[in-house]
Amino acid sequence: MLSPEGIKQEPFDNLFSCYKATLEKYHCKHCGFFTDLSLLFSQHTLTHHLKQAPSYSTQTYFCKTCYFKTHSLLHWYQHTQSGCNYEDSTWLQCENCSYGTIYRSRLKWHSMSKHTPPEQKRWRECPHCPFRTLRRSHLKNHIVAKHLPEDSIKWWRCPECPYQAKLNANLKKHFIYCHAQPEMVKWFQCEDCPYKSKYKHDLYRHKVRQHSNPDEVQWFECDKCSYRTKATWDLKAHLNTVHLRQNNKVKKFECEHCSYKTTRRCQLAVHVTNRHKAVEDIEWFECDQCEFKTKTKYGLRSHFKIRHVEPEVEEWFTCSQCPFKAKFKAYLKRHQNLMHTDEKDMKWFECDHCDHRTKHKQHLKKHLKTIHNVIT
């Protein structure tokens, strides 16, 4: 049963104001299940009560003067009381670009985030680290995710598996990705190719990488080397993996069973599954089109992408400096590191036990195994 509670913990309470009303919950008419999320409710009904007549109904509330609609009576009431004055002829246009909207608040946010100099923006700063953001909600989520003590967190728990998250948004993403049936998912479809995604930000990344004109795109450049990219998240990953690694400032996650360590928590989880989990405890991921099976969901996705996806439907990662393209971002990064990176800016894979270094991660693994008897 999913019944997450709001997080209230000193000294963070005084940073934010909280609306005391609570959202309506979705109650199952066949059992005692209830949840705050309509997607979880629909999935529960399909999974556990599909053979019964679906006697439930979800009421949708509409605004009479604009396109706003919601399943929550509380949200509808808040919207109508906020002074909705939308008119069909109203279209608000940005003075600096082609962006337009019917909502004044969205135009204000767009102007602030896209066209206002950094020194004039109203930043909300974290009291515990250098993090800052323009949104109050982002600051609150950051504090919960990064600074709230583990024993003080009110976890959002998945009703289908042991997964738990610090943020409600992360639980939603998990459920959509891992448990939602395809017909229950709202797919985001690319207008220029067959690509589609469960996540809106993945579609945005796809458009930036695959369909943006290099001459018109905004490039984000590294201030420490010649690297540049179309996306801020790629630049951040570059800084973390290349320059922070060189200065030994990267946080590493260590295995409890051996000397293995990595800069990514997800890679540590894969390592534990592959190397240390008992066979009877492994959850195998099987391909529905052939006899292939693997220990990790990523391995199944990679297999499906290589063996069962047609080239014309595939989302290719293309090099911005030559015709090279790859099915996996990691292959593109390796290509760029080997072919288009200066020697001084090269991403080297360094041994923690000696001075050996190499351009290839697999060569480092072989070195560790043969010279230091370390298996990664």
TrEMBL record:
Gene3D superfamilies named among the record's database cross-references: Classic Zinc Finger
Domain C2H2-type: 188-216, 317-345, 349-372
Keywords from the named record: Metal-binding, Repeat, Zinc, Zinc-finger
InterPro entries: Znf_C2H2_sf, Znf_C2H2_type
Ribonucleoprotein recorded as keyword: no
GO terms of molecular function: zinc ion binding
Protein name per Swiss-Prot or TrEMBL: C2H2-type domain-containing protein
Organism this protein belongs to: Zophobas morio
